[in-house]
What we know:
- 52% of the residues lie in helices and 8% in strands.
- The protein contains 8 helices and 2 strands.
- The protein has helices spanning 21-26, 29-41, 52-71, 79-93, 129-142, 144-156, 172-183, 188-201, and strands at residues 10-17, 121-128.
Amino acid sequence: MVNLRTVIGTVSVTACVPYGTQAQLENLKMFFDAERARARTLSMASTEGLSRREASARRTLWEEQKEQLRRRGQLTDSLVALVIGGLCREIEAREWNRDWPDVPRQTRGRWPGSPQGEWPEEVSVRLPADLVQTVRAACWHTCRKEIGLLYAWREQHPKARPTCPSRPRCDAAALNEYKELASKIITTGEIWRAAVARGIGTDRPT
């Protein structure tokens, strides 16, 4: 289970996904409702018979426990929970559940090597900041050499638009070089997309 609570808060993330994903998520709304109802029946959710202070402490602890259940894929009571569970599974599958060095500031904005216009739908959620930080750091440091080569390519071809197929503004050889370099980079978008896909495919509690 991923548990890297060294960074507090949430971060807005948008996953560009294949056509039909939004319809799949729409069809899960009744499931989310059922999961919320199931959560209310669990013992930690009850504050009956407790003082005001005890009830407050119980609710705080319950919120923390619900987050852990979501990360383990054992509580999928919202779209956010679905993506969190899928993202944790993706991080574990890639063995990224560890401390990573910081990411350079120049990575703000579009991730190096990201394709453009290939995915027709978007899914936006706010994810725990520690998970987002882990993904960004892992993507950067796993592909640091390839990202450096891509930046060097950009410097050699400052007017090129390699993600615009109709007007790339560079010759075929340079464009092929860019595509080869970009294909070796794991982008954050790839991970958000995988998280949504894993979340949709996760086995549901009965």
